[in-house]
Design a protein that fits this description.
By secondary structure, the protein is of the alpha/beta class. It has 12 helices and 8 strands. The longest helix is centred in the N-terminal third of the chain and has 21 residues, at about 1-20.
Length: about 300
């Protein structure tokens, strides 16, 4: 047993060294690391931390997040704001309220505003472009990031021309079969991926991301995520553990793992050294260390 453990440790160390040098592995190599993470997590975190420090030092980038609507046309099986959740208190902010939030954030020192909401048809291209232009005209030194879900190519184009700089669209899973188990039949995996491609083509800085430990997810799926992200080459990757919500069909499913999420963040750092990795709400919610500090 000890011999086998040492052998696995040597293999995983070599794979991590290869990843750091070449910034890519194949699916089987990623899978081996995930399956043998206990043998190599400390070494991975060491190498990932050094890579991060070489590029970013100890800097932390703060974003001003404006959640302007929790109304959504979609019925994703994992999401608390899914349209079938009638226990959710719904809201949407007016243009004036959104601009007031940006004024407040600017005075606090924020220089990136993230406008995020459900797929709410109330916010037409005309209204959203007006909001983006208004913020840009008042604060030309600020970046605007949008997170509005799936829209048409023309919609993305208009929003880019209005002054949007970045767009966040989590794909949630890179496996089509798995995607279909998490979403209603009306939603299309192919369209989600095409939206990311459209955003890249239009010149946005893009963010993608996935849930860790979502229902029906396998370790092989996680390895596929890393290959997908390498090929997509986004500027930001947001990942966090799946958290079961009491008002969804997945209410009785087990939530995802902080430990695996952190390991995957280390792999992503070595795969995409310059990528921005946000501290996600889901990860902070499940992290017991954070809870102890808060209490």
């Amino acid at each position: 047993m000890e011999y086998m453990r040492k052998q696995h440790m040597e293999i995983t160390k070599n794979l991590i060294d290869k990843l750091e040098k070449e910034q890519t592995l194949n699916k089987e190599e990623y899978l081996y690391l995930i399956q043998n993470r206990e043998n190599c997590k400390d070494y991975l975190f060491e190498r990932a931390s050094q890579t991060r420090d070489k590029i970013y030092g100890k800097e932390i980038y703060i974003r001003g997040l404006i959640e302007f609507s929790n109304i959504c046309k979609n019925d994703c099986l994992y999401c608390g704001i899914r349209k079938s959740n009638f226990n959710c208190d719904r809201y949407r902010l007016s243009k004036e309220e959104i601009l007031e939030c940006s004024d407040y954030g600017y005075n606090l020192g924020f220089r990136t505003f993230v406008l995020q909401g459900g797929e709410d048809s109330f916010y037409t291209d005309e209204l959203l472009c007006d909001i983006v232009r208004s913020i840009k005209e008042k604060y030309p030194d600020c970046a605007i990031t949008l997170s509005l879900g799936e829209r048409s190519y023309e919609s993305y184009k208009l929003l880019k021309e209005a002054g949007s700089d970045r767009y966040l669209l989590r794909h949630e899973t890179a496996n089509k079969e798995h995607y279909q188990k998490l979403h209603p039949k009306e939603m299309s995996f192919d369209n989600r991926i095409q939206c990311l491609k459209n955003l890249k083509e239009l010149g946005y800085q893009i963010g993608a991301g996935f849930m860790v430990g979502s229902p029906f997810q396998t370790e092989e799926n996680l390895a596929e995520e890393l290959v997908f992200l390498k090929n997509l080459d986004p500027q930001m990757v947001g990942i966090g553990p799946f958290i079961s919500h009491k008002d969804t069909p997945f209410k009785d499913k087990e939530s995802g793992s902080v430990e695996i999420t952190l390991f995957l963040l280390g792999l992503i750092r070595l795969t995409l050294p310059k990528v921005l990795l946000p501290a996600t709400t889901a990860l902070g919610t499940l992290d017991p260390l954070r809870k102890r500090k808060r209490n």
